[in-house]
Amino acid sequence: MRIPIRMIGIATTFFWIFLIAFFVSAVYSVKDVHFDFGEPQMDVTSDNKVVFSLPVSITNRGFYNIGSFNISTEISDKEGFTITRGSTFIPVINKNDVVTITHNMTIDINDLLQRDKNYLFNDTELKIYEAVSMRIADVIPVQASTNFSMPWGAPLYNFTLGKVEYTAHNLTYFKVVVPISFENRAFFDLVGNIQIQMYNSTDIIVGEGQTNIEAHHNSPYHGYLELYVSMVGMAESGHFEVYFLTPLFNYGPLVIPYG
Amino acid sequence: MADANNDFKKRVRNFTFKALKATVKGILFYGIYFVLWMSLAPISEMVPGFQQMIETFVMVYIFLIIVGELTSGTIFQYFFNVARALFVIGYLIFSLKGGIFGLTFQNVSLMVDLRLFLAIAMLLSLLGLAKPVFQAINYMSEKEEYTPI
Lengths: 259, 149
Prior knowledge:
The structure holds two protein chains of two kinds.
Chain A: H1 2-29, E1 33-37, E2 41-44, E3 50-60, E4 66-76, E5 82-93, E6 97-107, H2 109-115, H3 118-121, E7 124-136, E8 140-152, E9 157-161, E10 165-168, E11 173-184, E12 190-200, E13 205-215, E14 219-230, E15 238-245, E16 250-258
Antiparallel strand pairs in A: 1-3, 2-3, 3-6, 4-5, 4-7, 7-8, 9-11, 10-11, 11-14, 12-13, 12-15, 15-16
Chain B: H1 2-46, H2 50-70, H3 75-95, E1 100-105, E2 108-113, H4 115-146
Antiparallel strand pairs in B: 1-2
């Protein structure tokens, strides 16, 4: 019986040494894995969606391959509604290899506005959940995750129509000048068109006009829009219906009373 | 008188040899820990209490090695070896928290899934537990064989 017992001892010792050596070397080699996050970039796709791109470079100088490398990002609003999520997966990062990937996330501003129009006019905060997971030496799953907030700047912050000016255009029409002002606090430039329809107090359309706008991000916009309104239907009070048409989103009507 | 003197000397020599063997084993085990610690040291900066956790394990394990060696040649050696194997199993389960090891460091949550490592370690520990049990059985059976009728 002594020989089998000795064999059990030898086998156990051998496997313990192998297991500990493997585990320690796998943990030790993590310090030779480097992640470099580049400058995030923003682009607009052909179908008018905003794409965030984050270049990531992974340098694996460890003893083992890294398996199932995954970066995932989830952006949600204050109530926890998921606005978008993106995931980038690399099956294997071989040892002594450098892999560069671009982690993309797409945001459809129109979808966002369907959820809440306040994103157009009010600043808010978005919650971001970021997780990086991998299998060290292809067998030890590791995941690092973090939560942080990102400010959302409204593209039409403090949108207001100023005091309307009326001047006689001819015997039958008034020329109405409507001042427009807002501040583009969004991370993107706002280029598009604003259409305004003027209604009198009996909800009959009396005139309409449009103007092109170009507001760079983090800058105020001041402009005006001209309407030609029939003197017959003109009233002292009523409301404007404002429509926004841009490559990134379409929104309207925004009802603003006058008079 | 001379036989008794020789017997005493033999016992002292035996005990000295056991103590020496226990010391060598303890030092050897501590040396292995010392070498491995150099590569695990960066973890202790991130995981609070990691060094204390490992040191407690090493301390108890070395103690059980020394006691096991000092009681070698008796049935108690196998008791201590069983205790050592059970200690390893219990310690692995409690310290690795079932294999999912998590910590939070400056708003970053880190999760390490060591279930596979734990499962293999458990199997090896059970094998390590079987060894002193077999040794105890063997010891008792050999003792019975050599007992004069």
